[in-house]
Structures are given as structure tokens and as C-alpha cells.
Design brief:
This protein is an alpha/beta fold and 341 residues long. It has one domain: Alpha-Beta Barrel (TIM Barrel). The chain is built from ten helices and twelve strands. Helix 7 packs parallel to helix 9.
């Protein structure tokens, strides 16, 4: 009886084994790496950022037609090159879906404390892990690219050279998979180690630079309380394109969708509209406090400046703008002659 049971058992195992060999095995595979060379997109850009602490429901769906690129802010690195999990993954997913549905290119903006970037970029091992993790994040979430918002590499601490290494390595990795790389940078109107920290060697590695021409209270002596004057925008583009030789097609002019008062406190542009302010002007008295911002007229002037001198405009941030006909992003589109219907 034992022999019979043994023979029956062996036969059963052979049958099961035979079935397993014939069953199809599904192995998840990544899309093949592109074989064609990477070609940068040199079209004029209208870019905005969306912070994780904002609710996507607060932005009208029609607004997505007014931009070409949208960055979710932020993804944070650790010193060893690992990445911190997104704080609001649901909002990230919703926002990216809305953007794609409207033909908007999607990206993740990477930011964090300066000390973390300095430490991470100084280590070849950490840089390598960071680059791998960023590429995995981009591919997993089907994004079009990455924005690096390191504020700021500097010549005073040696991080400027490591920034060049990091950006070149990240660029090589992303471009192999036809993903773009942008960088948020200083306006360049203040001389010193931070301005010098963006070395010209990084220009070829980056697809475009989002120049943050705001938060400059006191820079323009003609408008000392205006944190983002038109003159400041002109000076910034003259520096980066003229003095430093940044290619025109890589320059994107930053425009704030918020105002500031003399104490450097900020208020969203949409709040000025809600308060009934004349937003064709660049200042408004709100609850007894004077705020200075970029209204529709100045925004149109800056859009024209960018069209003449650069290759795009950028807004911080998407939620700050008005959803109605007084939107400054709409005003910029009108100046540029873009169709957003």
C-alpha cells in the first residue's frame, strides 16, 4: 500500500509540475529605454508650481489650459540620497491627472534645507543613490521631468562645484529616458557667493532655468517696497543672459502671484481680488496695511519682456492666482496671444 501511495504521490507531483511549466509567467517590465537622442523642448513655456499644502480643488479646471508645465512642490531628499515620502500623495495624484488631462507637462520639484543638499551633493555615493531614486520616482509616476530647487549652492561653502556634478549626473540620467531637467535659481541681482554659486558649467546640463525674480524688497530704489519690480526683472535677465551668457531658450522669467508688505509678510494675489482692489495697479490697502504685488498691467509687461528676451514665464504659485477674469496668468496669456479655451 505504501508503494502505491508513493507512486500516486509522485504522479500527482509530476502533473502539478507539468502544469506549472505550461502556465504563462507575467514578469513586469519597464518601457524600453529610448534609442533616439534626447531633443530638448525649446518652445515658449508658461510654468507654475503647486505646493503640497494646497488643495487642488481650489484651482479652477480652466486654469490648467493657461499653463504648459506644472511642478508639484516638493519632494525632499535625505543626506544619503534617499527620498522622503510625499506628504500628500492623494493631492499629487489628483493634480498630475488634471494636468495631463489638459495637455500640461508634469514634473516634481525637489527642495529641502540647504544643509541636506550640501551634504548629499558632497558624496559621490549619495549623489548616485539620489539620481537613481529620482529617476525611479519620475518613471513610476509617469512624469515628464524634474525641477531642482536647491536654495542655494554657494562658492563660500564649496557646494557650487558639487552642484555642477549633481546636475550633470541627474541630467544624464533623465535625458537618457527623455525626461527634462529644470532648475529654480536666484535672480542674480545681488552680487556675492550665492549668485556666483550657479556656475556657467551647469548651463548645458539643464533644459531651462526658472529665475525667481521676486522677494527683493528694497532692491529697486524707485519702488523700495515693491518686492518684484519690472526693473528688477530687466536687470535679472540682463545679468543671466548678457553677463553670464545663459542661452535665451533656457531662461524663464519668474513672476509672483502674491504681494508683500513693508514687513515682508505675504498675501495671495487672489486675496487682493476678493478684497475688491484695483488689480490693474501694483499695490492695495488691505485692512489698513499696504501690500505691493504685480497686477495685470505689470504682469503683461513682464510677459512681453520674457517673450522678447527669454523663453518663458513662471508663476509661484498656481493656487495664489485668481480663478476669474482678473487672473494674472490669464493676463499673461492674453499678452502672449495664447489660446486657453
Amino acid at each position: 500500500m505504501k508503494k502505491i501511495y508513493l507512486l500516486i504521490g509522485i504522479s500527482t507531483l509530476l502533473i502539478i509540475s507539468s502544469c506549472k511549466k505550461n502556465d504563462p509567467i507575467t514578469v513586469p517590465t519597464e518601457p524600453p529605454m529610448p534609442t533616439t537622442p534626447y531633443v530638448p523642448d525649446n518652445s515658449f513655456k508658461v510654468i507654475s508650481y503647486f505646493p503640497s499644502y494646497r488643495d487642488p480643488a481650489g484651482v479652477a479646471d480652466s486654469k490648467f489650459k493657461m499653463i504648459t508645465h506644472l511642478f508639484y512642490a516638493f519632494l525632499n531628499p535625505n543626506t544619503d540620497g534617499s527620498l522622503v515620502a510625499l506628504a500628500q500623495p492623494g493631492r499629487f495624484t489628483t493634480l498630475m491627472q488634471k494636468a495631463r488631462a489638459n495637455g500640461v507637462k508634469t514634473g516634481i520639484s525637489i527642495s529641502g534645507t540647504k544643509s541636506i543638499f550640501v551634504t548629499m551633493a558632497a558624496s559621490a555615493t549619495a549623489r548616485n543613490l539620489f539620481v537613481k531614486n529620482v529617476l525611479t520616482f519620475v518613471k513610476t509616476n509617469n512624469l515628464d521631468g524634474v525641477d531642482m530647487d536647491w536654495e542655494y549652492p554657494s562658492t563660500s561653502d564649496g557646494s557650487a562645484d558639487n552642484y555642477v556634478l549633481l546636475m550633470k549626473e541627474l541630467s544624464d540620467s533623465l535625458h537618457k529616458h527623455h525626461k527634462f531637467l529644470s532648475a529654480a535659481i536666484t535672480p542674480g541681482v545681488y552680487a556675492g557667493s550665492i549668485r556666483d554659486g550657479l556656475k556657467s558649467e551647469v548651463f548645458p546640463a539643464v533644459d531651462f532655468f526658472n529665475i525667481m525674480v521676486y522677494d527683493g524688497i528694497g532692491w529697486d530704489k524707485n519702488e523700495p517696497f515693491q518686492h518684484a519690480s519690472y526693473n528688477m526683472a530687466v536687470a535679472s535677465l540682463n545679468y543671466w543672459l548678457g553677463t553670464r551668457g545663459m542661452p535665451k531658450e533656457k531662461a524663464v522669467l519668474g513672476i509672483p502671484a502674491y504681494g508683500k508688505n513693508a514687513n515682508n509678510s505675504a498675501k495671495a494675489y487672489r486675496d487682493f481680488v476678493t478684497a475688491g482692489a484695483d488689480v490693474s495697479l501694483d499695490n492695495a490697502l488691505i485692512d489698513g496695511v499696504q501690500f505691493y504685488f504685480n497686477g495685470t498691467v505689470t504682469t503683461r509687461k513682464k510677459a512681453k519682456l520674457a517673450k522678447d528676451m527669454a523663453n518663458g514665464i513662471m508663476f509661484w504659485e498656481f493656487y495664489h492666482d485668481d480663478n476669474g477674469d482678473k487672473s494674472i496668468i490669464r493676463a499673461a496669456n492674453d499678452e502672449l496671444g495664447r489660446n486657453y479655451n
